[in-house]
């Protein structure tokens, strides 16, 4: 039983960077922009967060810096695709290319270094009173570090925002039918910029979690493709932040299962097990495409740039 | 004109960045040029780098013409390399011509199979090909890692996880000092040009790419067209993989594709899916890469700078599309008008 | 009609898109309590003008005054705030949301939505104007008429006293159009100013107080309804006298070419969209199908041509059942289909390609071998361009840049070129200028004389009655009635379109 609990606990930790990236890409797509630069933004956040963390010893400064880094990457993409109406797919791919190169470059001097103790302590697991005592669930959910709790809260806040507020309704309108939203008087450009930048900040945070808490050190390509899994996860959870919570943690579990099985009596090569998250993503995609319904569809105007004066 | 000025802008921006590093931008740029074209050796190296890029970009452009977003070039290269490596390692003593032909065929088949899977999923279930092909990249990569650390590990490598080198018979011969891949590339460019513009299949792919409904209306068999063009797409990538494994690395490793699958997408897009342009752009990108590795040794600038430069140029080209399509007209209020 | 300060005053407005001048020194005055129609052909500039009134476009020069105040709209929000409510031809509604939710978007109602307040306000408006609709229903589940009402409600909710309706009745039955007109009259009584855009002259004559005609981007004249007639209006629209009659040659109909027997078709969601449809067409006969858009017309066309899978039934073409055959096999049999969907370039043609490549679309596979020889087709392209007076810089010019009329001519040119036995046309004159319309009607009559069987799906009931020999009316996937052209009236057709069934006689061979 204890192994199950510890596995689930660890799954949440592993899934947290995925959660932030997924939530980010989710709101980005909801506003109609497909950003394939998630991997790049995560890496930018990871390296800048780590660098600031090493130099300032402050966790807060590091997180802030990571968010700014991710948002900066997103800004390039946003400017290109929103104001200059560039092709979203290529712009996103280029952002990933840029982010990878950028983080590799900046990180050159940081390779091998470990997160400073001050930060490590900040992210030590915190045992929540009362909640942490709930048998089974409490042990898994409420003995985590601050970042994980921020993850819970962010997902819930996003859910409330999207489904209960009028701004959330406007958001949905933009992604579904921008002409209609425009005719209704919504400032599409403003909404797009805000949400794309916010998405970048969240992705940057996700990346920083990897370099500051999860590993916790800087390695080249520390994200190892998680950004891409996040893009798939958004579809998997049907653009729903609540489902994103569950989906991210499930995939977090898949991520670590290879390592966990090593010590057990199951003798499969770690590398084959490493394939699992990707295979499962494909299976998920196939299943989702088999049962198409309007609840599970993407925003209708996804990846189409909006131009009011178009005849 | 606008495209060129955008590239110039990008270079300027990166020059500033380089200057901030305390280096002379002109010096760096001229070194890059020297590194790419300065000597017979560097020209050869540039062409060697351009070969897999061009072939892969050709493969990607077939898929893209059909609006099938094949992001899986990377994986298809790897699997092509894998299948051909199987034969290279299994029959090292076979007659070279025979062995290489088998390896080429295996490379094509390997890549084709890897592309067939997302194609059939799209046909049967309508599954989003962007994600599937992407995931297939990672699966392919992990598979090679598995082989490299496991069943195919070279016992003679003193515990270092690598796969054994190919025998002489399995290495592509050189022509004019460059592996024969360059001839293959030119042949393929011509072939693909004719295929896309003058054959029935090429016509069908173009129609399908424009609108599925129009393809149906014209009586085109959509499923078979998707499958055939993806087999072609993957096959080309797989061939590139075989060339890389055989001629460049002389073995199979996780680095066999080295990001070419992704760069090729950008090459294909920049070339507007046109075969002759693909050749030119591939050489350009290869020059950037080659120049990049040169300055790494010359100036200690890490290779990642090459991708930063590439990405910056791309950002500017992407942005400049806007100014080509729309003219900014100032009136009482400044508005944008579409250039008729 | 109050002759005070006009609600709308447009003075010398000019607007260009690139090289195309859409509005050239346009003038317009509309008062409160007036229904003012804007009449003109497609491309005359009507939509451009009203888009400037609603804040979507900004004028290049000239002035607009609303309620006497000069305005400078930079976005739709400004127009909404000035009391202008625009109801678009293509609905600006979010399908995935309910009617209620569509009311809320864009409003600054604070962070959380107060549904009760909104419902009350909506209820008041509905009672005032006699509107009856279920607000909780999702837009995607609504009929066209209901969607139209939601649009009107949206505009009234935002406090509009100026309404602009852009071709609102395009997809209505005559009865639904009546309902709309009644709401419009009520608004007029309440002092609203209404701009009504249409190209249907009978409607314009029915509802307007005054009419302004636009031609090629310029205001030609503003007339009083009682001082004009459809013929005079047509002449003003086109610039010269127009013969508004459609030729129908008297010929002997031949044998039956195609018989559709008990056809049933299911759509992607496994819902029956065609329910047991039976009809036939003879050589030299024009059979029309009338119905509200989406009643199954499209599916009938696609079923006959093999594009749509069939659940049950037979389609017997020249003695042979073609159910289950692929489109290619059917094309070979001479079922030439000129199918014009709403998105003209979405099915029949490839926009990015030139005329030659488009002409190849159905015949390319006939050539032997792998390569394409485009020379003979290029020659044919030049001939067709001559015959149909197609305006294009070159046969190698991408067709998506051409005007709607010319694109349509290319499509028709290709389809007629293959000398079909059966010609299926869906909305072939939609969105075309009057001259091209009548050119096409004449082409159809020529084909009739050649002995071709023609299936014609159209929305202009007058044209249907003049052009066709028989008219089938379809509603909700079923044929509700069949009328000989000589017996048909718009009222009869309208009722059948709305669902009232009639006894049918089997049409026998002449």
Automatic annotation (TrEMBL), chain A:
GO cellular component annotations of the record: plasma membrane
Primary location class: membrane
Cell compartments where the protein resides: Cell membrane
Regions crossing the membrane: 6-27, 34-54, 60-80, 92-110, 122-141, 146-163, 193-215, 227-251, 271-290
GO MF annotation, one: transmembrane transporter activity
Keywords assigned: Cell membrane, Membrane, Transmembrane, Transmembrane helix
Entry membrane topology: Multi-pass membrane protein
Record's protein name: Branched-chain amino acid transport system / permease component
Organism, scientific name: Clostridium liquoris
Lineage: Bacteria, Bacillati, Bacillota, Clostridia, Eubacteriales
UniProtKB/TrEMBL annotation, chain C:
Gene Ontology MF: a single term: ATP binding
Gene3D superfamilies in the record: P-loop containing nucleotide triphosphate hydrolases
Membrane topology: Peripheral membrane protein
EC numbers for this chain: 3.6.3.17
InterPro entries with a match to the protein in the record: AAA+_ATPase, ABC_carbohydrate_import_ATPase, ABC_transporter-like_ATP-bd, ABC_transporter-like_CS, P-loop_NTPase
Predominant place of localization: membrane
Compartments (UniProt record): Cell membrane
The keyword Transferase is assigned to this record: no
Domain ABC transporter residue range list: 8-241, 258-501
Keyword Cell inner membrane: no
PROSITE patterns according to UniProt: ABC_TRANSPORTER_1, ABC_TRANSPORTER_2
Keywords: ATP-binding, Cell membrane, Hydrolase, Membrane, Nucleotide-binding, Repeat, Translocase, Transport
Gene Ontology CC annotation, any one: plasma membrane
Domain of life: Bacteria
Protein name listed in UniProt: Galactose/methyl galactoside import ATP-binding protein MglA
Name of the encoding gene: mglA_2
């Amino acid at each position: 039983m204890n192994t199950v609990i510890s596995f689930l606990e660890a799954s949440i930790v592993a899934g947290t960077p995925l959660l932030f990236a997924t939530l980010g890409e989710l709101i980005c797509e909801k506003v109609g922009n497909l950003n394939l630069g998630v991997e790049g933004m995560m890496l930018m956040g990871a390296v800048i967060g780590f660098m600031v963390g090493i130099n300032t010893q402050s966790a807060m400064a590091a997180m802030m810096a990571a968010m700014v880094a991710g948002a900066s990457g997103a800004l390039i993409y946003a400017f290109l695709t929103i104001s200059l109406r560039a092709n979203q797919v290529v712009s996103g791919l280029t952002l990933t290319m840029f982010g990878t190169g950028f983080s590799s470059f900046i990180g050159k001097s940081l390779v091998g270094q470990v997160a400073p103790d001050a930060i490590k302590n900040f992210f030590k697991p915190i045992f929540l009173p009362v909640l942490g005592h709930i048998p089974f669930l409490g042990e898994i959910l409420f003995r985590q570090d601050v970042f994980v709790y921020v993850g819970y809260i962010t997902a819930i806040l996003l859910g409330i925002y999207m489904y209960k507020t009028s701004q959330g309704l406007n958001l949905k309108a933009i992604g579904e039918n921008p002409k209609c939203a425009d005719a209704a008087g919504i400032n599409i450009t403003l909404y797009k910029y805000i949400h794309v930048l916010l998405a970048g900040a969240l992705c940057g945070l996700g990346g920083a979690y990897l370099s500051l808490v999860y590993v916790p050190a800087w390695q080249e390509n520390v994200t190892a493709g998680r950004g891409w899994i996040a893009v798939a996860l958004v579809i998997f959870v049907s653009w729903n932040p609540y489902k994103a919570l569950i989906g991210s943690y499930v995939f977090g579990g898949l991520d670590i299962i290879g390592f966990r099985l090593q010590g057990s009596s199951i003798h499969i090569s770690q590398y084959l097990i490493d394939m699992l998250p990707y295979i499962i993503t494909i299976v998920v995609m196939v299943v989702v495409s088999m049962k198409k319904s309007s609840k599970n569809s993407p925003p209708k105007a996804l990846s189409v740039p909006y131009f009011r004066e178009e005849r | 004109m606008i495209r060129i000025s955008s590239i110039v802008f990008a270079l300027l921006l990166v020059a500033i960045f380089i200057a901030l590093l305390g280096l002379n931008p002109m010096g760096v740029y001229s070194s890059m040029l020297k590194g790419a074209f300065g000597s017979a050796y560097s020209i050869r190296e540039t062409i060697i780098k351009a070969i897999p890029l061009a072939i892969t970009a050709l493969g990607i452009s077939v898929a893209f013409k059909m609006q099938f977003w094949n992001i899986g070039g990377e994986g298809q290269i790897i699997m092509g390399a894998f299948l051909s490596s199987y034969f290279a390692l299994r029959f090292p003593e076979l007659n070279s011509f025979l062995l290489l032909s088998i390896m080429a065929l295996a490379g094509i088949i390997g890549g084709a199979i890897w592309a067939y899977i997302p194609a059939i999923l799209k046909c049967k279930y309508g599954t989003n090909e962007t994600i599937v092909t992407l995931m297939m990249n990672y699966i392919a990569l992990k598979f090679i890692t598995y082989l490299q650390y496991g069943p195919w590990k070279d016992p003679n490598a003193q515990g270092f996880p690598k796969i054994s080198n190919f025998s002489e018979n399995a290495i592509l011969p050189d022509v004019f000092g460059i592996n024969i891949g360059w001839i293959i590339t030119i042949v393929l460019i011509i072939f693909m040009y004719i295929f896309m513009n003058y054959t029935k299949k090429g016509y069908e792919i173009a129609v399908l790419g424009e609108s599925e409904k129009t393809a149906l209306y014209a009586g085109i068999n959509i499923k078979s067209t998707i499958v055939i063009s993806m087999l072609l797409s993957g096959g080309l990538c797989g061939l590139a993989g075989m060339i890389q494994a055989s001629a460049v690395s002389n073995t199979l490793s996780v680095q066999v594709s080295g990001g070419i699958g992704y760069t090729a997408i950008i090459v294909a897009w920049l070339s507007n899916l046109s075969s002759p342009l693909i050749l030119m752009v591939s050489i350009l990108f290869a020059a950037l890469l080659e120049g990049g590795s040169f300055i790494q040794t010359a100036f200690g600038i890490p290779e990642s700078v090459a991708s930063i430069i590439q990405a910056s140029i791309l950002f500017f080209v992407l942005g400049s599309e806007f100014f080509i399509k729309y003219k900014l007209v100032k009136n009482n209020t400044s508005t944008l008008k579409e250039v008729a | 009609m109050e002759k005070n300060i006009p609600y709308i005053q447009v003075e010398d407005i000019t607007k260009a898109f690139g090289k195309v001048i859409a509005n050239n020194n346009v003038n317009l005055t509309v008062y409160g309590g007036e229904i003012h129609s804007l009449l003109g052909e497609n491309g005359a500039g009507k939509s451009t003008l009203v888009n400037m009134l609603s804040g979507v476009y900004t004028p290049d020069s000239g002035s607009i005054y609303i309620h006497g105040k000069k305005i400078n709209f930079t976005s739709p929000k400004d127009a909404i705030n000035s009391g202008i409510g625009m109801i678009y031809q293509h609905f600006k509604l979010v399908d995935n949301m309910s009617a209620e939710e569509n009311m809320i978007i864009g409003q600054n109602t604070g962070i959380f939505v107060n549904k009760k307040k909104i419902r009350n306000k909506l209820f008041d408006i509905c009672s005032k104007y006699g509107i009856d609709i279920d607000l909780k229903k999702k837009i995607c589940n609504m009929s066209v008429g209901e969607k139209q009402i939601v649009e009107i409600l949206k505009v009234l909710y935002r406090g509009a006293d100026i309404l602009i309706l852009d071709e609102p009745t395009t997809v209505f039955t005559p009865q639904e159009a009546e309902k709309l007109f009644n709401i419009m009259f009520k608004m007029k009584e309440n002092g609203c100013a209404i701009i009504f855009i249409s190209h249907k002259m009978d409607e314009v004559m029915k509802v307007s107080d005054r009419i302004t005609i636009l031609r090629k981007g310029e205001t030609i004249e503003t007339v009083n309804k009682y001082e004009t007639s459809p013929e005079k209006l047509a002449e003003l629209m086109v610039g010269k006298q127009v013969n508004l009659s459609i030729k129908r040659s008297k010929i002997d109909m031949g044998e039956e070419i195609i018989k559709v027997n008990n056809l049933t078709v299911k759509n992607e969601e496994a819902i029956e969209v065609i329910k047991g449809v039976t009809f036939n067409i003879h050589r030299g006969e024009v059979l029309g199908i009338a119905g509200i858009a989406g009643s199954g017309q499209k599916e009938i066309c696609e079923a006959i041509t093999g594009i749509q899978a069939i659940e049950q039934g037979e389609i017997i073409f020249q003695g042979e059942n073609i159910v289950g055959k692929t489109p290619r096999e059917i094309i070979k049999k001479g079922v030439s289909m000129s199918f014009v969907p709403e998105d003209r370039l979405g099915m029949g043609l490839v926009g990015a390609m030139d005329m030659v490549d488009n002409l190849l679309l159905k015949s390319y596979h006939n050539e032997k071998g792998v390569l394409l020889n485009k020379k003979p087709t290029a020659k044919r392209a030049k001939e067709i361009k001559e015959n149909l007076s197609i305006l294009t810089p070159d046969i190698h010019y991408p067709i998506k840049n051409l005007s709607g009329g010319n694109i349509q001519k290319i499509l028709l040119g290709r389809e007629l070129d293959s000398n079909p036995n059966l010609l299926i046309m869906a909305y072939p004159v939609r969105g075309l200028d009057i001259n091209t319309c009548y050119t096409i009607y004449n082409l159809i009559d020529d084909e009739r004389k050649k002995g071709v069987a023609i299936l014609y799906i159209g929305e202009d009931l007058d044209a249907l009655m003049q052009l066709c020999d028989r008219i089938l009316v379809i509603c909700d996937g079923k044929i509700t009635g069949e009328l000989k052209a000589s017996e048909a009236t718009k009222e009869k057709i309208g009722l059948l379109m709305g669902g009232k069934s009639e006894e049918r006689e089997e049409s026998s061979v002449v």
